[in-house]
Amino acid sequence: MAIKEILTKITTETAKKAIELAKFGLSLLQIEKLLGQSEGTIERYAKKSAAFKRDSEIAELRVQIAIEEAFIKRAMGYEVTEKQLIRVPSEEGTDEDNTILKEVRIVTKTVHPDLAAILAWLTNRDGARWTKNPAAADNKGSYEDFLKKNKTAEDEMKVNS
Question: How far is the C-alpha of 158 from the C-alpha of 155, rounded, in Å?
Answer without folding.
Answer: 5
